[in-house]
Specification:
The structure is a single chain. The chain is about 35% helix and about 20% strand. With about 280 residues, it is of the alpha/beta class. It folds into two domains: about 140 residues, Leucine Dehydrogenase, chain A, domain 1 (Rossmann fold, 3-Layer(aba) Sandwich); about 130 residues, Rossmann fold (3-Layer(aba) Sandwich). It has a six-stranded mixed β-sheet. The chain has a six-stranded parallel β-sheet with strand order 9-8-7-10-11-12, sandwiched between helices. Strand 5 and strand 6 form a beta hairpin. Helix 4 packs across helix 5, helix 4 packs across helix 7 and helix 7 packs across helix 8. It is globular and about 55 Å long. About 40% of the residues are buried.
């Protein structure tokens, strides 16, 4: 019997998730279908009950519902409870919907794959949404020295770590001695590819620029970081790694880590091929 999975979010025109999960399902030899559900905010309260009714096994959750959907779940995993955001829901045979955060694991795998050491380093996080919560928690759990959060409205930002500094984008010129800058906002994501969250002049203060966006593969943020001599990473490896972790949760299995790199390479080849046609 075919298993049913999917992705919910507000806008999904940018996503590679169906292709990624199709490749994972081939590897683990499971018949499954992965659908896309663009959900309006006022309908979010009906999503989980609806998916239960039609027999879905699990879903991924993306912008802007990673925190808001929690109130409609039956339970949370330990890491999701700590983070306060989820990107995976598993629906078991008893129709219990449990939220998990595999962004946490995917982000860590991405840093390890890129050989970026965060021990005793300082990081600047752009954005305060669900993705940033997973990133911040991972950094804190793995030896980061300092974190500075950049928000459009620092005074109204509800942030649970009082010792971390929260600044506005206008205060970026005050930052010194930080090696890593991480874009956790959707600014620059397809189709708004001419946008970037910060001015290029701020990037020269850093060694590494990480963008959780994967479409386009080189955002304007990363392009400008490269021009300033930074090592750059996009979010594709994280996307695939969190998807593999999602399938591990849904099917209660372990998947060889080599699958992540194989799918990343496959997607990069497809992206390059599409570019040649444009």
């Amino acid at each position: 019997m075919e298993k049913l999975y999917g992705l919910i979010g507000e806008k999904l025109g940018h996503t590679y998730s169906p292709q990624i999960h199709s490749e994972i399902l081939k590897f683990i030899n499971i018949e499954g279908h992965y659908g896309l559900f663009q959900v309006k905010k006022h309908n979010l309260k009906n999503v989980i009950s609806g998916l239960k009714a039609i027999g879905y096994n699990g879903i991924n959750v993306t912008i802007p519902y990673k925190s808001e959907i929690i109130q409609y779940l039956d339970s949370l995993s330990a890491e999701a409870s700590k983070i306060g955001a989820i990107n995976v829901v598993s629906i078991d045979k008893s129709n219990v919907a449990t939220g998990y955060n595999t962004d946490y694991y995917g982000f860590g795998m991405m840093l390890n794959n890129a050989n970026i050491n965060i021990q005793n380093e300082a990081a600047v996080i752009l954005g305060t949404g669900g993705a940033s919560k997973a990133v911040i928690q991972y950094l804190k759990d793995n030896g980061i020295r300092d974190i500075i959060i950049v928000s459009r409205d620092p005074k109204s930002t509800n942030y649970k770590y009082p010792n971390d500094k929260i600044i506005s984008y206008n205060d970026l010129n005050e930052i010194n001695n930080c090696s890593i800058i991480i874009n956790c906002t959707p600014v620059g994501m397809y189709p708004e590819v001419e946008n970037t969250p910060i001015n290029k002049m701020y990037l020269r203060k850093f060694k590494f620029a990480v963008d959780l966006i994967y479409n386009p593969s080189t955002t304007l943020f990363l392009k400008q970081a490269q021009e300033e001599g930074l090592k750059t990473i996009n979010g594709l490896y994280m996307l695939v790694a969190q998807a593999v972790k999602s399938q591990e949760i849904w099917n209660e299995i372990e998947i060889d880590a080599s699958v992540i790199g194989n799918i990343v390479n496959l997607l990069n080849r497809r992206i390059k091929w599409v570019k040649t046609l444009l």
